[in-house]
Design brief:
- The chain is α+β, with helices and mostly antiparallel strands and about 260 residues long.
- It is built from 10 helices and 11 strands.
- Strand 4 and strand 5 form a beta hairpin.
- The longest helix has 27 residues.
- It starts with a helix and ends with a helix.
């Protein structure tokens, strides 16, 4: 399951990034390129060539394009897309939290990651989505045509770099999950999860973590039961490492260094 996610991510990087870096094919010797006019070859008019090129140098930034993209509002538990659907769009999360998950053969759900505001979801090279995306709370996403976005990335270095960073982040998350689920104890998993949320929040010295997902979602990600998630949060609070407020939706990190020690980071 996670291995297919890593292969999908690497394949996407290898296909999109090289052209965005400005790499050009080295032309052959002139004698190899010249074709006798007797074969009926005609020069392509310059105006025609410019018309056929993707409009990547029209002065619009990625943010400009996103501002004109369709916005979709989602309720909690509503799907952005499902595994097996035709991959027609790429989405950027504007608000809320989106759970990226895989359905196992026995029907169980395994969450791979949570997408936060600013994250792209739906990237890939296959013709269908290999995972499902579901809102864990009221959320908003922007929709961009997958084929158009990837065509623009071939000539727009800034856009390609943005997508490259996004798939790299997915790769890091997948590798981290392999270690977390396979090697860490319950308290180590929870500590690492809270630290990851704190880093992604980008709030600097503000040690407040908002939980935009249910206990069951956290349990699915960390490979724990709901009861174990609740007991572990209680234990961390008793250790004075965290405080839990607002009905469990807000976590105050009282001792970030101790939390990092508990996560073995």
């Amino acid at each position: 399951m996670l291995a297919s996610n890593l292969v999908e991510t690497r394949s996407y990087v290898e296909r999109v990034v090289p052209k965005a870096r400005g790499e050009l094919d080295v032309p052959k010797a002139r004698g190899e390129l010249d074709v006798p006019k007797a074969r009926g070859e005609l020069d392509v008019p310059k105006a025609r060539r410019q018309h056929d090129e993707p409009k990547a140098r029209d002065g619009m930034t990625l943010e400009d394009r996103l501002s004109h993209a369709t916005e979709r509002k989602l309720e909690a538990k509503e799907h952005v897309f499902r595994e097996g659907d035709a991959r027609t769009n790429v989405y950027r999360v504007e608000s809320g939290i989106i759970a990226i998950y895989k359905t196992l053969f026995d029907g169980r759900r395994r969450i791979i990651d949570f997408a936060h505001p600013g994250d792209f979801i739906g990237l890939g090279v296959l013709g269908e989505y290999i995972m499902s995306a579901q809102a864990t709370c009221p959320s908003r996403v922007r929709c961009l045509s997958a084929s158009a976005l990837e065509k623009l990335a071939e000539t727009d270095a800034a856009l390609a770099l943005k997508l490259y960073k996004s798939v790299c982040q997915d790769l890091v998350a997948a590798r981290s999950l392999l270690v977390t689920v396979g090697q860490r104890s319950a308290i180590e998993r929870m500590a690492a999860f809270l630290l990851a949320l704190h880093r992604r929040s980008g709030e600097g010295s503000n040690d407040v973590v908002k939980l935009g997902m249910r206990r069951s979602d956290i349990a699915d990600l960390l490979g724990l039961t709901i009861e174990t998630v609740s007991r572990t949060l209680t234990k961390l609070r008793e250790m004075r490492v965290i405080d839990v407020e607002l009905g469990g939706t807000t976590i105050i990190l009282r001792d970030v260094e101790r939390l990092a020690d508990l996560a073995n980071e």
